[in-house]
Amino acid sequence: MGIKGLSKGVIKQVWRERRLQELHQVRVGVDAAGWIMKSLMSNACDVCLEVEGSVKHHATFARYVQNMLHKLPESSSILLVLDGAQWPLRLQLTREGAIQGRRRSLERWRAMPRTTRRRLTSSFAKR
After folding, report:
1. Coiled-coil segments, which residues (predicted)?
2. What are the residues facing 3 on neighbouring strands?
3. Long-range contact list for 58-65, CB < 8 A, 24+ apart?
């Protein structure tokens, strides 16, 4: 999702810290990934634990984005920017999933009878 390397390659070159009052009639790029993360952090436990009524996080997200947009001047145009890099949590979960998958495969391999293992090993060696 997004454009890989956008924040490192392009945005950091043109990024400037300014007061909101200085942004009239200016095109503003906003880190949408940051907004998404901050809006979901407010009730992340409810969402993860699938607590009944946790659907409210959609409303919380929308409210957070609305509040952030209201802080920007109406005359400015807003671009929501998503960097294509994977989020650190996503990278960690992907790695953990790969490790667990390898562990499960090894356990299944060890649970197989030796004759089946030999047959599988020889069929892989022929390829």
Report:
1. none
2. 83
3. 61/36, 64/35, 64/38, 64/39, 65/35, 65/39
